[in-house]
Structure formats: C-alpha cells, structure tokens
C-alpha cells in the first residue's frame, strides 16, 4: 500500500505544507496555510488532511546554528503535539536548520531580497523539510 506524508514549515503567520508518498519518495510543496492572529487555521488543515489521508506528518523544528533552542523551536514543537492530538497520526520532528535559506537559494532569492515571495519560500521550505526526512528514512 502506498503511504502519503505531509511536511510542515511552521511559522507564526503561515505554515508551508508539502506532500510526498512512498512510491515516488519525492516531496512537492502544495500549499501555505495562513494563520489568523497566530491561531492555526484548523479548517484549512482539516481539509488537507481529509483530501490526502496522510499516515505520517513531518514537522520541521528550527534550532540556532549552535544547536540551541530558539522561540520558534517551541512554537514548532507545540504545533507537532497539536497535530498528533488532533489527527492521531504519527508525527516526526526533523531539524530544519536553514531550510528557508535553502528555499530562497533554490528559488534564486537573496537572503535579504525585499521582494522575496514569502509564500513561495514557505512552500519550498516545507518541501525541503519533507524531502530531507524522506532521504533519511
């Protein structure tokens, strides 16, 4: 049976979402979920979960360059816990160090480029997170 996976690049204002399956093992960024006043858009996520029926959810956890925790480390881990509780699915955490920088590089944006399309960057970052997990699984 082919398994479906979703990957997440978690942010305060938005979260990038990627899709992959066990047949192709190739991640593709599919959506960016916009949060309202820092509150997760569960309605949109419920629709995505229902549409794709994933068996595993992969959440990128950001750390500082020295491996220590930062504010977003706690935000992403809280998101992972909420996913597990809400959907009763296996949730995996993966270090996402520099995934957004890599996404910008792949999209040809300079790190400080003021016109970088954040939606594209978040979608691509979720793709990188999920592809990294697939490559290491």
Automatic annotation (TrEMBL):
<keyword id="KW-0963">Cytoplasm</keyword>
<dbReference type="GO" id="GO:0005829">
    <property type="term" value="C:cytosol"/>
</dbReference>
<keyword id="KW-0378">Hydrolase</keyword>
<dbReference type="InterPro" id="IPR037027">
    <property type="entry name" value="YqgF/RNaseH-like_dom_sf"/>
</dbReference>
<dbReference type="InterPro" id="IPR006641">
    <property type="entry name" value="YqgF/RNaseH-like_dom"/>
</dbReference>
<dbReference type="InterPro" id="IPR012337">
    <property type="entry name" value="RNaseH-like_sf"/>
</dbReference>
<feature type="domain" description="YqgF/RNase H-like">
    <location>
        <begin position="3"/>
        <end position="103"/>
    </location>
</feature>
<dbReference type="InterPro" id="IPR005227">
    <property type="entry name" value="YqgF"/>
</dbReference>
<keyword id="KW-0690">Ribosome biogenesis</keyword>
<keyword id="KW-0540">Nuclease</keyword>
<dbReference type="GO" id="GO:0000967">
    <property type="term" value="P:rRNA 5'-end processing"/>
</dbReference>
<dbReference type="GO" id="GO:0004518">
    <property type="term" value="F:nuclease activity"/>
</dbReference>
<dbReference type="Pfam" id="PF03652">
    <property type="entry name" value="RuvX"/>
</dbReference>
<dbReference type="GO" id="GO:0016787">
    <property type="term" value="F:hydrolase activity"/>
</dbReference>
<protein>
    <submittedName>
        <fullName>Putative Holliday junction resolvase YggF</fullName>
    </submittedName>
</protein>
């Amino acid at each position: 049976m082919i398994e479906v996976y979703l990957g997440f690049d978690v942010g305060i204002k938005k979260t990038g979402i990627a899709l992959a399956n066990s047949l192709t093992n190739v991640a593709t960024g599919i959506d960016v979920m916009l949060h309202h006043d820092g509150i997760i858009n569960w309605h949109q996520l419920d629709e995505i979960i229902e549409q794709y029926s994933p068996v595993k959810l992969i959440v990128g956890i950001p750390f500082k360059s020295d491996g220590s925790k930062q504010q977003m480390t706690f935000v992403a881990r809280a998101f992972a816990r909420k996913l597990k509780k809400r959907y009763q699915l296996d949730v995996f955490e993966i270090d996402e160090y520099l995934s957004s920088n890599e996404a910008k590089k792949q999209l040809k944006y300079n790190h400080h480029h003021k016109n970088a399309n954040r939606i594209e960057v978040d979608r691509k970052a979720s793709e990188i997170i999920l592809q990294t997990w697939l490559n290491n699984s």
